[in-house]
Amino acid sequence: MGETVEQSVAKHEPILNEETLKETLEDLRELIEQKADSFIRNILVNLHPADIAEIMRYLSEEERHYLFQILPKDVASEVLTELDQPVIDEILSDLNPKEISEVLTEMDSDDATDIISELPEQVAENVLSNISEEDRLEVEELLSHHSETAGGLMAKEFVAVNQNDTVDEAIQEIRKKAEEVEDVYNVYAVDEAGRLVGEIPLKNLILARPGSRVKDVMDTDIVTVYTDMDQEEVAKIVKKYDLVSVPVVDSEGRLVGRITIDDVIDVMEEEASEDITMMAGITETDIPETSPFKVSRSRLPWLLVAFGGEIISGYLMSRFQTSIAQLISVVFFVPLIMAVGGNVGNQAAVVVIRGLATGEIALVDTRRRLAHEFLVALLNGLFLGTLVFTISALWLHDPKLGLMIAISMIVVIENAAFLGALIPFLLKKIGIDPAVATSPFITTSNDIFGLLIYFSMVTIFLKFL
Amino acid sequence: MGETVEQSVAKHEPILNEETLKETLEDLRELIEQKADSFIRNILVNLHPADIAEIMRYLSEEERHYLFQILPKDVASEVLTELDQPVIDEILSDLNPKEISEVLTEMDSDDATDIISELPEQVAENVLSNISEEDRLEVEELLSHHSETAGGLMAKEFVAVNQNDTVDEAIQEIRKKAEEVEDVYNVYAVDEAGRLVGEIPLKNLILARPGSRVKDVMDTDIVTVYTDMDQEEVAKIVKKYDLVSVPVVDSEGRLVGRITIDDVIDVMEEEASEDITMMAGITETDIPETSPFKVSRSRLPWLLVAFGGEIISGYLMSRFQTSIAQLISVVFFVPLIMAVGGNVGNQAAVVVIRGLATGEIALVDTRRRLAHEFLVALLNGLFLGTLVFTISALWLHDPKLGLMIAISMIVVIENAAFLGALIPFLLKKIGIDPAVATSPFITTSNDIFGLLIYFSMVTIFLKFL
After folding, report:
1. Domain A15-147 = CATH 3.90.800.10
2. Which residues in chain B are closer than 8 Å to A14, comparing Cβ atoms?
3. Contact, A340 vs A383, CB < 8 A?
4. Nearest to A265 among B171, B239, B447 (CB)
5. Is A232 exposed, middle or buried (0-12, 13-18, 19+ CB in 10 A)?
6. What is the CATH number of domain B292-464?
7. Contact A443/B at CB under 8 A
8. What is the model's pLDDT at position B190?
9. Residue pLDDT, tens place only, A410-462
10. Nearest neighbour of B277 by CB, restricted to A183, A242, A351
């Protein structure tokens, strides 16, 4: 008995940390090379599909294919849903439509739909013709929704009963769907027209008298989303109301699907990654391994924005050529002016962008936020201005020149903070994702404005002082 | 009947969008001014606590206090857990310890602990002496764990039974705890020593024969976390295995708490925000309204890094003063060299940082990733190099100078991509959050290296060509 306990406690541990991952990976590689299928099966049977998927990411293409074809169909289907798109494409390109449909049949409708939507049209049609009528209709319905909406996110697997049914009948319905619907958190109640009228958390179902009617024990005060709601909005709602699943209704209020928290978490991560990479000037999240040509093409547009902007900066500097020739030392502060302006602008922008994304800042906050950023920039400007005054006055032995540089820097900082905070609000207002605003856009425009301000001050200084 | 249905359908909609938020806000403001308490109560009774919390964020300090003292204690407690820390501090500073403890008594143990841990020590002690012995012991246990570990995240509210109990007894236990534990997803099974040996999802409990033993229907192959596991690790596990809650065990394997998905989502958002703001050079997430002095202080260190780095850049440029005086036009390309280097470095860094954070990239990928980034940078370098050659050769009427600038740019780009991708891996390896690596660190060091490379090339060019 004691031993059984020990065993199950041991099993509880998260199955892979970086070291066990490496070990298992090496074991599997060796066994794959020896084609020792039964040993491989022995290892795989103890692994969670999510762990198998993680291991697959590190295998070579041939090793991956070899391992995948050993997996039982139901495990293969779970592993597939955990993999990144380029790897999925690669694995499926090796299977014929019949084999693909066998794997998809084991999947939840939302995952199967995601995979089918990425297949070449011809293959997708072939696959669809190989799965059951019922599954095909579900997938076709899900395909009809835009992939980044609630309809594109939902699955057709849920438990629903008529509100006039009894609690006992609801339990029978769970039993009937037990295999199809893996995670049941709520039973949904609908009226004769299929419209969603309430839900019963399983806890309440367990505690209810078996004879009572569903409509007498259901919650009617529930949160639902419409099929055409943007997935980012769905994620915000799920987070705000602490839900683990949310029912999806069509425009008539009929229950058509259910979104579970694991898919919502994927959306949150996707949106966060999108924001982060977009801020660094990458149009597509290019983390998964794809060809360097593709990645280069996705990053180049943003580099070209910076390129164009800084050619303008250079051209503007050339207009101040006489001033520069007169006092070469002013160019030593060009990197400083550019960097401080860029960083201040980015700081202001990122806080606003992230706040708008998580809902902590709303459009109604615009004026308050700008005033706030203006004050923060003033404080930092005064501090850095004093510092640069001291350094430049000592370095160049010219306090008047130092004062000019310090004043320029304060103006540049205020300008950068103001633009950095304002631009995300403006983009949000006209319906563009504010995350596109930061570097290189904000940095580049701050460079242009910053150098213009700086060299104008230099010219005035040289003329009048 | 039809009307009832319509009503409940109407109630389903997410309760606040930006417009209804504004309207409700204005209504409440007016009513607060008129001290029309019963009208205010009528509005509040229909709102979800999460919506009340959102409204509170937009009220003035006095309005907020007025509204909070009208709320029933249980709603007040739910609203409080949804608010940001500065607002919580402000509201609680107006309450005496007895009032605070009344609100905390209604909360889950993890939320109560979070709030107590932020109170001034004297107040916290007073509050603790005012709550029940049982609650106090729970809070004191939770306070003993580091706040960013599984122990700091978990709550003491869960349902556990002995593995030898029957399914019927498990259901009785749920009934007993129904009020205390709001969301039950699993019943945990423990042995005589309190060690966790399995769990039963509610679905399986419903479908099990009432007389069967817990140990015969429980899953033993479950994922658990230890009290001292880092919260980021917990979030990764919950995400990887698609969990909605995870049991927490101590070093002896005894069940001591439960972490629910809503808290894990907060961790994920917190970590994403931390990464994003850190990348822009902000040490603390300063989205909530705090004093400009505090915000300025949190942003200044990063500006000083940039400041110091760019003073070094300026000093290096001054060492090339003779070259610059000889050929002033080379400084027109300083903004371009800096910006392209900075952007390329950031792109490479952000992809690695985000990949390491989500687990899509691991340390074992280092060499492959560096090679990948080197290739991408080479492609972008060749493209931008050709472009800058054409532009500068035409602009300055000197193809040889144009070629020098183009070659410098390619070298700068390769250097920036290499550093950008490498530094996050190095930081991760020595246990520092890689997110600190990006701007201003990477940008600033890329500026220094970039200008050094560029002006060295300029000097060689002037000497030999």
Report:
1. no
2. 223, 225, 237
3. no
4. B239
5. middle
6. 1.10.357.20
7. yes
8. 97
9. 999 999 999 999 998 988 888 887 877 666 778 888 899 999 999 999 999 98
10. A351
